Amino acid sequence: MEIRVLGCYGSQLPGFNTTSFLLDGKILLDGGTITSVLTAEEQLKIEVVLVTHAHLDHIRDIMFLVDNLCFLKKKQPLLVLSTSPVIKALRHHLFNNVIWPDFSRIPSAEAPVLIFKVLGLGRPLSLSGVSVTAFKVNHAVETVGYVIESPEGTVIFSGDTGPTDEIWRIARKKRGRLKAIFMETSLPEDMQQIALKTGHLTPRSLEEELEKLGDPDVPVYLYHLKSQWREIIKKEVAELRNGNIHILEDGQILQIGAL
Question: What is the extent of the structural domain holding 77?
């Protein structure tokens, strides 16, 4: 499994892209950054977008992607998946013919550019050569993380979350096949109360969360750092002295089979 980091930050400044990962060139996990990074040819290869939640830094570029795919005349519709509340939010607030055209009915309802599909929590679904399972996490709005399973192994994406137990229950269950956990850490330690209120982690709460895993050998890749606080967060993470924690950068490509 190849994972390309299109964007890995929780806020946007020049040189810092909002969250989106591209798996094997075909599956997007979140869509904060797509069209400003991928060529038209690369965009045409995308089959599925898995959405963790409806905050703009995770969905913004889906609008521009489907617009491009419409005029590039992609033969197969783009499939956008999440839980029912997230799909409802996308339909009501974004693809509503006011903020953006409803591409689930363009060029026609019978042959749209975009298809929305509701995922049930805890129900594996086979997509483009992998198995995908959504699970609930602890954020300010309806948010899910994803378990992605392929022949090369299992990867877990946390989505935006504060302290939670479900990720670690799943991670312990997948022990042996688990190759990596992609974990949010948004704010520095002196913003712990804001982090708890908004459903995010700091390095301190990340350390507490990792204790629930009980397996020191699984690589943990941090993303969703607020770019304004990036250097402080990096310093605080380094002070944890955990060699399995890695901080992602935009543009990185990870080969899961090689982890």
Answer: 2-258
What does the radius of gyration of the chain's CA atoms come to, in whole angstroms? 18
Dihedrals phi, psi of 173, to nearest 5 degrees: -65, -30
- In this structure, are strands 48-50 and 220-223 parallel, antiparallel, or unpaired? unpaired
β-sheet bridge partners, residue 79: 48, 115
C-alpha dist (Å) from residue 210 to 13, 142, 148, 185: 29, 23, 19, 12
User: What torsion, rounded to 10 degrees, do the Cα atoms 56, 61, 67, 72 define?
Assistant: -170
The total domain count for the chain is: 1
Q: Which helix (H) or strand (E) holds 22?
A: strand 20-23
pTM for the whole thing? 0.96
> Comparing C-alpha atoms, which of 98, 132, 188, 186 is closest to residue 1?
132
pLDDT digits (tens, 9 = 90+) for 228-254: 999 999 999 999 999 999 999 999 999
pLDDT tens per residue, range 123-144: 999 998 899 999 999 999 999 9
Task: Give the tens place of pLDDT for each residue, 16-25.
Answer: 999 999 999 9
Burial code (b: 16+ CB inside 10 Å, e: under 16) for 148-166 equals bbbebbbbbbbbbbbbbeb
CATH code of the domain containing 78: 3.60.15.10
Which amino acid belongs to residue 41? E
Tokens 């965009």 correspond to: 43
For 147-167, give the secondary structure using H, E and C: EEEECCEEEEECCCCCCCCHH
